[in-house]
Amino acid sequence: MSPENTPDQPRGGRAPVTTKAQLGHVGLQLFFERGFERTTVDDIAAAAGIGRRTFFRYFASKNDLPWGDFDGLVEAMRVRLASVPQDVPPLAALREAVLAFNRFPDVADEDHRRRMTLLLGTPELIAHSTLRFADWRRAVADFVADRLGEDPGGLRPQTIAWTYLAASIAAYERWLVDGTSLQDLLAEAMDLIEGAFRP
Question: Distance between CA 125 and CA 132 in Å, rounded?
């Protein structure tokens, strides 16, 4: 194998990226510029100054890169929900957890908008989202089931989890269209569904 084809050799003389967040930023910029389908893992690795093998230490696949640290956010949501006092109604706890999950600094707003346009508008990524959203729904269903003393796979916890996910996606799609405050849209979407589940 020639030196230029060595999997882990930094390329182009640039300083290699050293964090998952940095690699994610490089990859997203290429997706925005070239399109998701036309950007390869090798393109991202070259732009990041790393080898292909190093890319896969950070992300399992190209499809995973646009999600950033989604797993970490889901785990943080689980921790938040687990810490909610028992006297706080479950729906109030879910509202705060969903809003916190989707709260980003104003300076990141445009990048987040472009990321979500990519995730919700790219067929290959929409298919991949099934796996990611399942983890999110599981966190919600586990919390609801624990509070209600039910099986997480039961109809009520699953219905609530699916409904909160649907409300969140609907808010995101509206946000991408009209640019209204994402937090306001999420709160409004949850207002629309809370009445159906309130005891």
Answer: 10
Task: Report the C-alpha gap between 96 and 74 in whole angstroms.
Answer: 14
- In terms of pLDDT, which residue wins out, 110 or 47? 47
Burial of 159 by CB count in 10 Å (0-12 exposed, 13-18 middle, 19+ buried)?
middle
Per residue in 68-96, pLDDT (tens digit) is 999 999 999 999 999 999 999 999 999 99
Domains of the chain: 3-59 (1.10.10.60), 69-197 (1.10.357.10)
- The conformation of residue 36, written as its DSSP 8-state character, comes to S
Instruction: Give this prediction's pTM.
Output: 0.84
Task: Decide: 49 and 11 in contact? Cβ < 8 Å.
Answer: yes
Per-residue pLDDT at 48 exceeds 50: yes
78: closest CA among 102, 105, 112, 101?
Answer: 101
Tokens of residue 85, six digits:
């006092």
**How many whole angstroms separate alpha carbon 173 and alpha carbon 185?**
10
Distance CA 68, CA 47 (A): 18
Give me the phi and psi of 198, to 5 degrees please.
Answer: -70, 130
**Residue found by looking up tokens 């689980």 in the block:** 78
**In which band, very low, low, confident or very high, does the pLDDT at 107 lie, cut at 50, 70 and 90?**
low
CA distance 146 to 152: 8
Measured CA to CA, the distance from residue 171 to residue 188 in angstroms comes to: 8
